[in-house]
Write a structure and sequence with these properties.
Shape: elongated
Low-confidence stretches: 95-99
Radius of gyration: 18 Å
Strand content: 25-35%
CATH architecture of one domain: 2-Layer Sandwich
CATH class of one domain: Alpha Beta
CATH superfamily of one domain: Rv1738
Order of helices and strands: EEEH
Amino acid sequence: MTRTLEWSVRLHLSEEDGTTKARAVLDTGTATLTGHGVARCNPQDVDIPTIGDELAASRAMRDVARQLMRAADTELEAVGAGSTSGRAAPPYSWSDMAT
């Protein structure tokens, strides 16, 4: 069965006094996940706003990725494919581990 989906990610950035904040919102059409990231310029460094944007944005997207992985792990466990014991289970279907 072939499926085609489109999920959207919106990234909101704001910078003030050397601190950049980012909010990433993933909309799957049925669920929304929101991640947050912050980057602070060291007072001794040259303030280059694009670097703060990149760091804060990547941290916000990493936060969304962690939430998405946690949701997938929970759903795998619900169908008996995940590990609830805390030990690593053998790879199952959607593993990112090399075998």
